[in-house]
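Quarterly update from the structural biology core.
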Amino acid sequence: MHLSPDQIIFWQYGFFKLNATIVFTWGLMFVLAVGAKLITRTLSTELQRTRWQNLLEIVVTGIVQQIEEVGLRQPRKYLDFLGTLFLFIAAASLCTIMPGYEPPTGSLSTTTALALCVFVAVPFFGIAEEGVGEYLKSYLKPTLIMLPFNIISEISRTLALAIRLFGNMMSGAMIIAILLTITPLVFPIIMTVLGLLTGMVQAYIFSILAAVYIAAATQVRPPKTELDGQP
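Predicted structure, tokenized:
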């Protein structure tokens, strides 16, 4: 039983190793890129559309609505980043039904890389929205004393993102592997289905947390409506 796909080595030459984490990560990215290209090559604005386009529109619309509900006023501005995070983690979980496949999110190196993407994206979008000066001032609010605490908060939440995703994904894989050794086939199948559900939930939580952090960095305020202020 492997605790992490990092332990599965396909090729090694001295210090350099080609493990399952690298192989399955790049393979998954390739599949997602090719799939996106194939689905979007025949997009239509007519009433008659392909099933793949309908599925794509449902997924994109759902992600946009979730981003908007978090509080980001221009959800499509953040769709590329947050949508990619969600689809990658979700696809990594869905592919666990394939024999011999190990989800790359079961490796701490992968989850750390995803968390670092969020760590970089938060100030990137914050500076793009507020400007360098205003964004840096947010670390001094409400007083100068809060500067070290705000910096520690940025680092700790990045670490929490990585460990939370890693722990949840790895625990499911370990439970299935243990059940395969001590129980009949039917129980691991049930656990695999539950693992797929857990993976989708983790993809949703990770993406929503990233959206919340970006919303906090951009200091978004919901636009006032005509009903505001009316009894």
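Confidence is low (pLDDT under 50) at residues 220-231.
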